[in-house]
UniProtKB/TrEMBL annotation:
MF term (GO), any: alpha-(1->3)-fucosyltransferase activity
Family: Belongs to the glycosyltransferase 10 family.
Catalytic activity reported: L-threonyl-[protein] + GDP-beta-L-fucose = 3-O-(alpha-L-fucosyl)-L-threonyl-[protein] + GDP + H(+); L-seryl-[protein] + GDP-beta-L-fucose = 3-O-(alpha-L-fucosyl)-L-seryl-[protein] + GDP + H(+)
Keywords: Disulfide bond, Endoplasmic reticulum, Glycoprotein, Glycosyltransferase, Membrane, Signal, Signal-anchor, Transferase, Transmembrane, Transmembrane helix
GO cellular component: endoplasmic reticulum membrane; Golgi membrane
Annotated ranges, domain Fucosyltransferase C-terminal: 236-381
Domain Fucosyltransferase N-terminal: 100-203
Function: Protein O-fucosyltransferase that specifically catalyzes O-fucosylation of serine or threonine residues in EMI domains of target proteins. Attaches fucose through an O-glycosidic linkage. O-fucosylation of EMI domain-containing proteins may be required for facilitating protein folding and secretion.
Short name of one Pfam family: Glyco_tran_10_N
Name of the protein in its database record: GDP-fucose protein O-fucosyltransferase
Cleaved signal peptide residues: 1-27
Lineage: Eukaryota, Metazoa, Chordata, Craniata, Vertebrata
Subcellular location: Endoplasmic reticulum membrane
Pathway entry: Protein modification; protein glycosylation
Length: 470
C-alpha cells in the first residue's frame, strides 16, 4: 500500500510538469520536416477515396486486396470499409482528406481499424482522419490525441503540448490500473473522456451488458441447483485469480468463509479444483466458455466483488451471474441500485453490518426456494422494470457485438471527431466576428469523470488489517 502511494505521488509530480509545460503555438506557422511530408503523402494517397459513392455491405466486393491497403507512404487508398459502415445520417461533410482534422491514437494497440495505419472516418455529423502514426503528433492538423488510460504515463506524454490540440482519455477500467487518473490533476489533463462513470463525456457504464436480453437468459432450474447442493457443492461460488486488490475483497471472503461454505476455484483463497485442467486456465475462466458457463450456472450464488469501489464501475463479475441465473452477492459500485433490472435481483453486501449477517441471509435463501426465486423474476417477460436501465440501453450510442452500431472505440473516436469539428467551427466564427461571438470555452474533464474514493477495508477498520496485508 505504501509503495503504491509513493508511486502515485511520483506520477502526480510528473503530471504537474506536463500541466506547466509552456506549449509552442504552431497553428499559424505549421510544422516542417518529416511530419509535413508524411501528411502531404497521406493526402495525395487518398485522391481515389474522395467523393466516391458510399459503400454498403451489399455492394462491397470482399476481395483480399480490399483488406490489405499499402502503407500511406506508398500512396495507397486509405480505405473506407470501417468508416462507411457507420456514417451518420446527419453527416454532410464532403471535404477532401487534406481538409480534414487528424486524430492520433497514442496507444497504437488500441487503434480500432485493421489492418491499415490510417483511416478516414465519417461520423454522425462530420469526418476526420484517424491514425496511429506518432509522427503527426505536432502537426497543425492533428487536432486531438486519444490516450488509453492503462497505458498513459506522464513521462511518455507528447510534449510540448500544442495549444491547438485537445487530449482525449479512453479508460474502461477502474483507477487500480492507473491511480493518477483518480486525482484531479491527472484527469484534468484531458478534454474529453470515455470512462465507466456516467458523468464522463462518453459513458461506458454498461460496457459489460450487451443487451437486456442477456439478462433474460433462462436459469438452471431450482431442482437441478438443489441436486447440485446435495452432491457436495457449496451454495456460493468464488472465482478470482487477481488477489489483494484495493477493494480488499479477499479478506472479506476469508471472513465470510468462517460462517458459510464457499467453493473457491481461482488462485485467490482456492479450496477446490475445477472439473478439468482446461478450465483451470485463467483466460478460460474470464471468458464465456460454454463448459465453464454451464458449470458455474449450477451455483445458486456468486460472490461478485469488484477490484475497486467506484460509482458506476460494474463489470462482468456482476452481469455474468445474472445472465447465468445465479444471485450476485455484490460489493462494488455504490450506485449499483440505479442499474439493476428490478428491485430484487442482487444481494448488496453494503446492506449488512458484517460478513456473518451476509452469510445468515444467504443461508436463509438457500433453504427457501420461493424466496430464492423472487430474485430471478427479472428474467420473466416484463420482469425488467427499471426504466432508467431500459432508457440507458436504448439511448446508448455504441453496441457490444452489435453489427448495427459502432463498438465503443469507434464510437468514442467519432465523438471526438464531431467535437473537434464543432470546436473548429466555433473558433472560425470567433475569428471572423470577435466582437459579436463569444470566445469558445475549452472543455476540461472533471474529477467525477473518473474519480473514486480512497480504498477502505472490506470490513472492520484499517487498524485491524494484519501488517502483512497492508
Amino acid at each position: 500500500m505504501h509503495r503504491t502511494r509513493r508511486g502515485s505521488y511520483r506520477c502526480l509530480v510528473a503530471l504537474c510538469a506536463v500541466s506547466l509545460f509552456v506549449p509552442i503555438d504552431v497553428t499559424q506557422r505549421g510544422v516542417s520536416g518529416p511530419e509535413e511530408l508524411w501528411v502531404n503523402g497521406l493526402e495525395d494517397a487518398a485522391v481515389n477515396q474522395e467523393h466516391e459513392p458510399m459503400q454498403t455491405a451489399d455492394n462491397i466486393q470482399w476481395e483480399p486486396s480490399s483488406f490489405q491497403p499499402s502503407s500511406a507512404f506508398s500512396g495507397a487508398d486509405l480505405g473506407t470499409v470501417v468508416a462507411d459502415s457507420y456514417r451518420g445520417p446527419g453527416n454532410n461533410d464532403r471535404r477532401i482528406n487534406k481538409e480534414l482534422p487528424i486524430l492520433l491514437w497514442w496507444s497504437e494497440n488500441l487503434f480500432p481499424h485493421f489492418p491499415g495505419d490510417t483511416e478516414r472516418i465519417d461520423c454522425p455529423f462530420s469526418s476526420c482522419l484517424v491514425t496511429k502514426d506518432k509522427r503527426v503528433k505536432l502537426h497543425k492538423r492533428t487536432k486531438s490525441i486519444i490516450f488509453y488510460g492503462t497505458d498513459f504515463r506522464a513521462y511518455e506524454a507528447p510534449l510540448p503540448r500544442m495549444p491547438h490540440q485537445t487530449w482525449a482519455l479512453f479508460h474502461e477500467e477502474s483507477p487500480m490500473n492507473n491511480y493518477v487518473l483518480s486525482h484531479s490533476p491527472g484527469i484534468r489533463l484531458f478534454n474529453y473522456t470515455a470512462t465507466f462513470r456516467r458523468e464522463s463525456d462518453y459513458p461506458l457504464t454498461l460496457q459489460w451488458l450487451p443487451t437486456i436480453g442477456y439478462l433474460q437468459n433462462p436459469a438452471v432450474s431450482i431442482a437441478e441447483k438443489n441436486r447440485w447442493r446435495k452432491s457436495g457443492y457449496a451454495p456460493v461460488l468464488y472465482m478470482q485469480s487477481h488477489c489483494d486488490v484495493p477493494s480488499d475483497r479477499d479478506r472479506y471472503v476469508k471472513e465470510l468463509m468462517k460462517y458459510l461454505q464457499i467453493d473457491s476455484y481461482g488462485q485467490c483463497l482456492k479450496n477446490r479444483d475445477l472439473p478439468n485442467k482446461r478450465l483451470e486456465d485463467t483466460s478460460t475462466a474470464t471468458t464465456e466458455d460454454p463448459e465453464f458457463m454451464k458449470f458455474t450456472a449450477r451455483y445458486k450464488f456468486h460472490l461478485a466483488m469488484e477490484n475497486a469501489i467506484c460509482a458506476d464501475y460494474m463489470t462482468e463479475k456482476l452481469w455474468r451471474p445474472m445472465h447465468l441465473g445465479a444471485i450476485p452477492v455484490y460489493r462494488g459500485s455504490p450506485s449499483v441500485r440505479d442499474w439493476m433490472p428490478s428491485n430484487l435481483s442482487v444481494i448488496l453486501i453494503e446492506d449488512f453490518e458484517s460478513p456473518k449477517e451476509v452469510a445468515e441471509f444467504i443461508m436463509s435463501l438457500d433453504s427457501d426456494d420461493e424466496k430464492y426465486l423472487k430474485y430471478l423474476e427479472y428474467k420473466k417477460p416484463g420482469g425488467t422494470t427499471n426504466k432508467f436501465l431500459l432508457s440507458s440501453m436504448e439511448k446508448r450510442e455504441w453496441g457490444v457485438n452489435d453489427i448495427t452500431a459502432p463498438n465503443y472505440l469507434n464510437g468514442f473516436e467519432c465523438f471526438v471527431c464531431d467535437k473537434e469539428n464543432f470546436r473548429a467551427g466555433a473558433e472560425k466564427m470567433y475569428k471572423k466576428s470577435p466582437k459579436k461571438t463569444p470566445v469558445p470555452e475549452p472543455h476540461i474533464a472533471e474529477y467525477n469523470h473518473m474519480g473514486c474514493p480512497v480504498p477502505v477495508p472490506g470490513f472492520g477498520t484499517a487498524a485491524e488489517i494484519p501488517e502483512s496485508d497492508r
